[in-house]
Amino acid sequence: MSSITIYHNPACGTSRNVLAMIRNSGEEPSVIEYLKTPPDHATLTALIAQMDVPVRAVLREKGTPYTELGLDDPKWTDEQLIDFMLQHPVLINRPIVATPLGTRLCRPSEAVLDILPQPQRGAFNKEDGEVVVNAEGRRV
Can you say whether residue 26 is alpha, beta or left, with left for phi > 0 and alpha for psi between -120 and 50 degrees? Predict the structure, then answer.
């Protein structure tokens, strides 16, 4: 079993780039397609605590029912926001990556490099061609 877990959406370019960077470090992570298999309440709460970010920082607005549900209203408690994310997993921003070195919402995708146990094994370009790691394995 891998020591790295990615909560992944294969339709998301950022998520695909993060997964590719994890693999470029020589690791094969546990991939959880959270839209098909959402985390349970305890897991989502723990991930947010491990990231040490406000619950609202994990809420995704674009392409979600965020506006329709009125989630910008400050009346919602953290617990209620987590409940909304569990009812509508598309509200969970992605990708979230957990490694032995920490847990992060990897936006931008390069944020994953700070928590990978192993360095990149070679050059890495994002899907759009942007160079992230050069041929010497150094972050650009």
Answer: left
